[in-house]
Specification:
heterodimer, A: about 325 residues, mainly alpha, two-stranded antiparallel ribbon, about 65% helix, B: about 250 residues, Ferritin, globular
Chain lengths: ~325, ~250
């Protein structure tokens, strides 16, 4: 579903600074400047590799954890059609997770290691999934706003310099645009429905609006290392630019629904051709990232439980594969 | 109204719907990502089959109801699914064993139903058969992995098969309703599916190093609306929104 502008933290020493003047680095940079894709077998700076592992795995983890808030409504979807669409959507998120983990594996790390980082709390995932889905309208709001924000962020990633990630993003983006439409379609049905349904829709917008804006990450002024990521073309458009684009596209959609965006400072600026909007509560954002969102504990508890409860199944599959191999080897030896 | 055909279609639609619902409960909680995706996929297929069978049932009934009305506005007494499919998931072993026992039946059943004299029914069966064939391969392979895996997985798989066996008889019942449709060439005689099912199950159990339980007393009643306690909870959850907001469109 989403990658967030939280890939580099203040004071992080794990991303090494390379000698920018070495011949290898200069050659690498000139390839990037020429818009060539970097492939898994190519030489790459250690900082580039680590930054990508972190970003791609955070993205993968976000897909996996992101299955939970919407999965919360699969068994309560209000019609067979909605149930099938939601199942397909959440299944897509799992698929995105799978090929993002595969993309990360091309950089020399295993899926098991990455999942371990998630379950031990070492790796982060998008802050947005730490908010709850108490009503059906939340499923609509996630599709409309969260997937909408994800598309804004991910479309430029289709041109990311790292080939496997860029190619994965092309497929992800196609599916995300279907997800965004299904979410908006739920919101249309609710906003044209009964008073109770309209209330559900408005309350969901009230709860998801600001967290969706936070999905783009800290403002450019507070964003660390982003110039290096821009030079490497891992990141291609700044957080604030993407956020502005999202607001500009989404506000008219809210108006079409007859819903009110929960921001008293929101106004159209005819001169700039953009909406101006109020100050984001960065304290809340940082608290959610630090583990204090409404659902952080529950999300991780559920992921760990699924992992622990499933250990015997994964062990069985490995043991069976081993037995098969041994039997085949014996049969082959007997035939000789 | 063709009451016999209507009731028969409800049985098929309800079994698919309830089993699809049970599988969908796994979404996001499966032992590994590939299984999350596979179980959701099978749930999706079964829900689609339910939609088609219930849609046809509503058409046969001709009272202005649709598949959603049948799915979301009937209570336990009017549900006609097999008891096997309403049993709670418990663990992955029971889920897979339940799925395999059902899939092996559904492959035989759809194969026979595809020759129905009612073209609409035959078409649904033919489409369902392609899906059921894939489902059986998946659940059969996993039953083999669990049965012939570790000591723990073997014990869990055997316990699941033992626990579920008493619910398998209902799939082969041929009551007056089925008999009437057999005479009209619409439905196959369900008793006739047993031998081929036995053979499929025996093959997979043998490969899985699992013991086939003896055919003892068989539970019955789901197809006539006599259900266990779990179904009411499932319906309470599944039907919550349409029941809480009557007349609302979603």
């Amino acid at each position: 579903m989403y990658t967030q502008g939280l890939n580099i933290e203040a004071g992080d020493k794990s991303i090494p600074l390379e000698d920018r003047n070495s011949a290898l680095m200069q050659r690498f940079q000139s390839r990037i400047d020429a818009e060539e894709k970097v492939e898994p077998t190519d030489w790459m700076p250690e900082g580039y590799r680590k930054t990508l592992i972190r970003q791609i795995s955070q993205h993968a983890h976000s897909e996996i954890v992101g299955m939970l808030p919407e999965g919360n409504w699969i068994t309560r979807a209000p019609s067979l059609r909605r149930k099938m669409i939601l199942l397909a959507k959440v299944q897509d998120e799992g698929g995105h997770g799978l090929y993002l983990y595969s993309a990360a594996e091309t950089l020399g790390i295993s899926r098991a290691e990455l999942i371990d980082q998630l379950l031990t709390g070492k790796a982060k995932y998008s802050s947005i999934f730490n908010y709850p889905t108490p009503t059906w309208a939340d499923v609509g709001a996630i599709g409309w706003l969260v997937d909408g924000a994800a598309i804004m962020n991910q479309v430029p990633l289709c041109r990311c310099s790292y080939g496997p990630y860029a190619r994965a993003m092309i497929r992800v983006c196609k599916e995300e645009s279907f997800h965004q439409r299904q979410g908006y379609e739920i919101m249309i049905a609710l906003s044209q429905g009964t008073a109770e349904q309209k209330r559900m829709a408005q309350e969901a917008l009230n709860r998801w609006w600001w967290p969706s804006l936070m999905m783009f990450g800290p403002s450019d002024a507070a964003s660390l290392h982003s110039s290096q990521n821009m030079a490497w073309k891992i990141k291609r458009v700044s957080n604030d630019e993407l956020r502005q684009k999202f607001v500009d596209v989404t506000v008219p959609q809210a108006e079409f629904l007859g819903l009110t965006v929960p921001d008293p400072d929101l106004r159209w600026n005819g001169e700039t051709g953009h909406y101006e909007f109020g100050e984001i509560d960065w304290t809340e954002f940082n608290q959610v990232l630090a583990g204090n969102g409404p659902c952080n504990r529950d999300r991780m508890k559920k992921r760990r439980k699924a992992h622990d409860d499933g250990a015997w199944v994964r062990e069985a599959a490995l043991a069976h594969a081993e037995k098969r191999r041994a039997r085949q080897a014996m049969t082959a030896a007997a035939a000789e | 109204m063709d009451q016999g055909l209507f009731s028969y279609l409800l049985r098929q639609g309800d079994s698919c719907l309830i089993l699809g619902h049970r599988l969908s409960e796994w979404c996001g909680h499966a032992p590994q990502l590939e299984l999350d995706i596979a179980l959701a996929n099978i749930a999706l297929d079964l829900t689609g089959q339910a939609d088609a069978f219930l849609g046809l049932a509503a058409e046969v009934e001709g009272q202005g109801r649709d598949a959603d009305a049948l799915a979301f506005h009937r209570d336990v007494l009017d549900y006609r699914n097999l008891l096997l499919v309403e049993l709670p998931n418990e663990d992955f072993g029971l889920t897979i064993a339940r799925q395999f026992l059902f899939d092996a039946w559904q492959v035989e059943f759809y194969g026979a139903l595809a020759r129905s004299s009612d073209q609409r029914v035959a078409a649904l069966a033919a489409k369902g058969l392609r899906e059921a064939t894939y489902h059986e391969r998946f659940s059969g392979e996993w039953l083999v992995r669990l049965g012939d895996g570790t000591d723990e997985s073997h014990a869990r798989a055997q316990a699941a098969i033992d626990e579920l066996w008493t619910y398998t008889g209902e799939m082969f019942e041929c009551d007056a309703l089925v008999a009437g449709l057999v005479e009209r060439g619409i439905a196959p005689d369900h008793r006739g599916l047993k031998a081929a099912w036995d053979a499929r199950v025996a093959d997979v159990l043998a490969e899985a190093t699992l013991r086939r339980p003896a055919d003892g007393w068989m539970q019955s009643g789901g197809l006539k609306g006599r259900h266990g306690e779990a179904l009411g909870h499932l319906l309470a959850e599944m039907q919550f929104l349409p029941r809480a907001y009557p007349g609302a469109r979603w």
